[in-house]
Each structure stands twice: as structure tokens, then as C-alpha cells.
Amino acid sequence: MTPEASPAIQSAAAAPLFRRVYVWELPVRIYHWLNALCVLVLTVTGILIAHPPAFASVTEASFSYWFGINRFIHFATAYVFFFNFAFRIYWGFVGNQFSDWRNFLPLRSAQFRQAGAVLRVDVLQATNRPIDAVGHNSLAYFTYFLMFLVFLFQVISGFAMYASMSKSWFPQLFAWAVPLFGGDFALRQWHYMAMWFFVVFTIVHVYLVFYHDYVEGHGVMSSMVGGWKFVRPDMLKGNGRSWFPLSPRSSRSEQKSAPRRPS
Q1: What's 49's domain CATH number?
Q2: What is the Cα–Cα distance from 130 to 115, expressed in whole angstroms?
Q3: Chain segment 17-33, per-residue pLDDT in tens
Q4: Which class for 157: exposed (0-12), middle (13-18), buried (19 or more C-beta within 10 A)?
Q5: Which residues contact 113 (CB under 8 A, 6 or more apart)?
Q6: Is residue 9 pLDDT above 60, yes or no?
Q7: Closest-CA residue to 209 (of 16, 36, 34, 40)
Q8: Are 180 and 234 in contact (CB under 8 A)?
Q9: Measured distance CA(101)–CA(89) in Å, rounded
Q10: Which of 9, 62, 128, 246 qualifies as a FRET site for 116, CA 20 to 30 Å off?
Q11: CB-hemisphere CA count at 13 Å for 200?
Q12: Distance (Å, rounded) from C-alpha 255 to C-alpha 257?
């Protein structure tokens, strides 16, 4: 006869090991993948603009307009990139607590402590204990804030250079940046160097996404497709849940979470 389990064991067995939490709303996910596509297109076309292939000068002129098409793709994608970026800033004010703009700024000492702990795990490899965070961890938020600043510089510098060859009113809003940086040539160099920030960022970003998905097991990669993460119930308390008080909209979003037991 099998002895009956104690009430404590039965309670532990009945408790959900993970909760399925809706973290990344659809607008955030659309922004992420559209931004990734824009960065890829802008980087490839930007490199071709900076370093045109040799065959551009050895073919018949009537077949050489591919460079003009390349520039058009670069400029058109820049518009998509800008308005997508502007929408993400807007969503930082109306989205849930994980997309709140305040998370990206170093406003609390606890955020710095968590960022230091993430550095010990990700960079120094001093410990393999994962840092629990339902959304991004503090170091990721700070890095994205730096990325947003580079985004802003690329928008200003890119449209400033475009202003001299466009009659549209929008690029003219940024024409002041050309003399500020000492002319088109100097600004072009800064614009080109900033492009490599995105190349390095993308490599590091992809590596860390795979790394955290493996170490933490919260579904980091799939969350940017479906929006859901699997987290322990204790992670929904304190700063693992949000650095700031929840807005009414965020509270309604949390009602979408549901207990899940891993198969």
C-alpha cells in the first residue's frame, strides 16, 4: 500500500512551477522585427554607398543606374526606420510596464546593482547564476538606451546629408547638422562609423539572446515572436516584475498571465 503524501508535498506538487506571462505586446514585436530589417537594409546599402564595387565603373553607363537604385532603397528605408523609431518612443509612454520609457534610464541604484550582476554573468563569467528579470534586465535596458541615442544620431546625420539633394521639407529640418560637424565629408565619416556600432551590437545581441535563452530557459527568443515568457511565480514580485509602479493599462495586461507547468 502506497503511503499518502503529506499535505506539504501535495501543496508543492499542486503549485505551478512556471507562469506564462504576456511580456512583449504586438506593437513592440512589430517594431523589433521591422527595425531589424531596416538596420540590415541600411547597413548593406550603406556599405555599398561607401565602397561601390569595381564593376560600377567598367560597365556601360546605361546599365549603371543600380547605384541610384541602391541609394533610393537606402533613403526610403531611412524614412521607415525613422517613423518606426518614433513609434517606439510613443509606445514607451502608452505600453505596458516592460516597454515603459523609464526602464531605459538609470534612475535607481538597484538598477545599477543589477547591471553589475549581469556583467559578472555575461562578460566576466564569474558566476553561472542567471539574473531573473521578466522583461529586459537593467544592463540590457541601458544598452538599448545607448542604441536609441545612436539611432537618433543616424537619423539626424543621414537626413542632414540628404537635405542637399532633396526638395522635401522633412530633410531640411536636419540641415543644421552639416555645418555643425564641419561639412558633408566629416559628417559622412561620423555617419559611417556609427553604422559599425549596429554591426557590433547585432553580433553581441544575437549571442546574448541565445545565451540567456539557454541559461535561463524563459523562452527569450520565442517571446519576441509570440510575446509570452515562462517565469517562476516569485519573479513576478519586486523588481523582477517592474522597476516602477504599474499603470492601469499594465495591470490589465498582467491579467493575461496564466499558470503553466512545463511538460
Answers
A1: 1.20.950.20
A2: 12
A3: 777 888 889 999 999 99
A4: buried
A5: none
A6: no
A7: 36
A8: no
A9: 8
A10: 246
A11: 8
A12: 5
Q: Are 38 and 119 in contact (CB under 8 A)?
A: no
Determine the Cα–Cα distance for residues 236 and 24; give it in Å rounded to an integer.
Answer: 15
Q: Share the mean pLDDT of the chain.
A: 79
Out of 4-18, 38-52, 216-230, which region has the weakest mean confidence (pLDDT)? 4-18
Using DSSP, how many helices (H) and how many strands (E) does the chain show?
Answer: 10, 3
In this prediction the pTM is: 0.77
DSSP sequence for 177-233: HHHHTTSHHHHHHHHHHHHHHHHHHHHHHHHHHHHHHHHH-S-HHHHHHH-EEEE-G
- Above 50 in pLDDT, residue 102? yes
Is the pLDDT at 176 greater than 90, yes or no?
yes
Domain for residue 140, yes or no?
yes
Number of domains in the chain: 1
Which residues lie below 8 Å from residue 41, measured CB to CB, with a gap of 6+?
A: 73, 74, 77
- In a domain, residue 114? The reply is yes
Residue 155 clears pLDDT 60, i.e. is over it? yes
Instruction: For residue range 84-94, list pLDDT tens digits in order.
Output: 999 999 999 99
Residue 239 lies in a domain: yes
Number of Cα atoms under 13 Å in the Cβ half of residue 147: 21
pLDDT of 35-57, one tens digit each?
999 999 999 999 999 888 766 55
Domain of 181, in residue numbers: 15-260
Domain membership of residue 130 (yes or no) is: yes
HSE of 70 in the Cβ direction (CA atoms, 13 Å)?
16
